[in-house]
Each structure stands twice: as structure tokens, then as C-alpha cells.
Amino acid sequence: MRRSSHGAVPESDVAIFRRKHPPKAVPEDQMADVRMAASAAARFLRESGYRDDFSEESLADADAFLAICLATSQGPDRQTLAGAFGCYLGETLRRCLDAQWVFDASDDLEVRTPKGSRAFPVTIVAKKLRPEGDWKSLAAVPQAIRAIEERALSAKET
Fold this sequence. Notes:
Elements: E1 14-16, E2 24-25, H1 28-47, H2 56-72, H3 78-96, E3 100-103, E4 109-112, E5 117-119, H4 121-129, H5 141-157
Antiparallel strand pairs: 1-5, 2-3, 3-4, 4-5
Helix pairs in contact: 1-3, 2-3, 3-4
């Protein structure tokens, strides 16, 4: 698995792809589900004394909360955590990177930035929650996206 320059972010989950297939808008009823799941994650954070403001800084708190859940087996099950915190991560990316929620060609829920980066936040969190823990830090995701976009821009300029 190739990793980004940040070391903690597999490029297969956050990368820039050519737009062969235009993204599809997420239907409003499904966006309501995304918002509800993100709000549930925010509530988990708030009730545990962590930041829940969808800021980049709050992703470090999400990392800490998830680490405690995994270490103690307390809190919601992994599937619930993946869905809720995947939507929290996606909403945070949407806000801090001016991104939008879309469905890709295979109907996977993704967040896409104006520069064309695509992230699959529910997949990212699900991988973080696996025993082998492919992802170490949700807080690194916005930085990794920016680094990948800068590297792509530099490559175009040369």
C-alpha cells in the first residue's frame, strides 16, 4: 500500500482522480441521514467531554474517543462508530476544505474537494476501527488531502 507524504494516510482512500464520471448529488433524504449520523458522533464526543464543533482540531478528539472505545470495548459497536464518525469526518472535510458530499460512479458516499480530491470518510473510519488499524489518525486526513493536492499541482507545473 502506498502512503502519502504524511505517512498515515493510504493514497487509495484519499487521492485525486480524473473525472471520467461526473459525481451524482446525494439525495436530500440521504443527506438527512448523513447529518443525523454526524450529529450522533458529535453527541458522543460532547457527552464524553470532547470538542464536537466539526473543526479540524476536533478530529484529534475523535481519534482519542475512538481509541478509548476500542481499548475498553465500551460505547457503540464498530459499525455504528464507523457510520457516525465517518459522517463526522466527512462533514468536517466538507466544512474545512469547501468540499461536497457526492456519490461516485459505484454509488459510494464520498467527499470531493473543488480541486478534485476524493475521500471516502466512512471507509476511512471503518479501516481505523479494524484490528490491523490501517489508519492511525483522522486528524491527519485534511492535511493529507492538502498535501496530495499540492503535490498534484507541483507535478502539473513541471
